[in-house]
């Protein structure tokens, strides 16, 4: 078995072993979580909502489970604190702020964010209404305070509400209350141009140290046609100040398992396939730590977990931004602070390689879509052809090197046989053969470069299609959505056929090679099965790339035939 075949078999084994781990075949299942749809929202700060009644004075503070264990910052906080007096309960109220991009709803109970409706994004799981990020019976994002070494959850504290403008023009809402003897104010200011909420707060009259505890959503509702894949994508992610962004899928947290991520942290987030709720610090500010806890399992898919973030209150104040919206490339880049890496692509060790390639691919695809005024389906076809055209000179050189190796292979075999008892003479004669043919011992390896160089792009696109919302719901020809698999499996079959044609043409006029012939059948079949459940857009790209390679393979086959003709 020659070196090229050994390398090809090794690459094949890697693809077979790694791909099912990264992209498990989704199973049909009914949605585990369903989103509650709402009608048109308007600003109404006095509208009553269904909420638990406020507790009478004498609320006992307790440390949230996700913070009470394993937290370095809060290790000295008492969990058996005495009763803390809350302010007099008032009627539960909601305030809604509407922009062209989203509708955000807030509650005076705990000064919390209740929900966010994404305008312009349909809920594909229910086929009704728009995507709404919310949790059943509890806030989307909630808070607690650590004051005088006692932890007080704000969920049962009724805050007074003030808004900056009349109902229909409001862009901010402020909540104020007395908590544990301290005056607390929390304000939200919504950026009408982006999915961003600027948060600021003051806690006066509290002894230092004091901390704000922020609870991220314990899950997000399934909003995609393939609810299983949407739920599999549930994960927390965070960015240490001195390290790359990291992700922790819900599936990696066993029920009850606690995991402490020490600070300083630039940002933290929870995401599903296409939407994200993130907390981002301004410059020269950070979160102290983050505690993750695995939630109970009601199925094979992990659908819940908890995350509590610790923010130090300095000089009686705190501030950070909250992104609640789609994982749209332009919007994430506008946030800054590497928040566009909220989906850390690839394994942690390969992130420095995969992330830049994925980011470049996304930028190129978006640019082509914007400037060519074509649908993403045609953009992917053009992109596949473009990649092959760029690699044409390298492929040409590598394939000619392969042809040289085929020509000198009989002479090398003869030298090895003749000088098998004299290794030194054997090496000398083999180098002479290489020199006469204008080749080297590394020529065989260079023949594998055409297979290796497109692989980073292909792997990057695997990840791009997992989370790029721009492809969500985009139809093309018979496909209703290029971000999900081809329901008729036409594209995977076409991709397999195009791959076989490449191999068949490549073997024409070449010396007989039973191993290569076997691989020409096995590899296309294997790749067809691997890509059958991948995004149809990925299959479209790969098929276009294979078809663009056929002319070059045919020209080289003709060149090989001419070289074999006797003079």
Gyration radius, in Å: 30 Å
| Domains, number | 2
Largest sheet: 14 strands, antiparallel
Regions with little confidence, pLDDT below 50 for 5+ residues: 18-70, 76-89
CATH class of the largest domain: Mainly Beta
What this model shows, in words?
The chain has helices at 3-22, 65-68, 227-232, 329-335, 351-372, 376-418, 423-437, 443-446, 449-452, 454-467, 490-507, 514-531, 536-564, and strands at 59-60, 83-84, 94-98, 102-107, 112-122, 130-134, 142-147, 150-153, 160-163, 172-179, 182-191, 196-204, 210-216, 235-240, 246-249, 258-271, 275-280, 287-294, 305-313, 317-326. With 567 residues, the protein is an alpha+beta fold. The chain has 2 domains: 59-344, Beta-galactosidase, Chain A, domain 5 (Distorted Sandwich), CATH 2.70.98; 368-564, no CATH class. Strands 7, 8, 9, 10, 11, 12, 13, 14, 15, 16, 17, 18, 19 and 20 form a 14-stranded antiparallel β-sheet that branches. It has a 4-stranded antiparallel β-sheet with strand order 3-4-5-6, with no helix packed on it. Strands 1-2 form a two-stranded antiparallel sheet. A hairpin with a 3-residue loop joins β16 and β17. The longest helix is centred in the C-terminal third of the chain and has 43 residues, at 376-418. The radius of gyration is 30 Å and the shape is elongated.
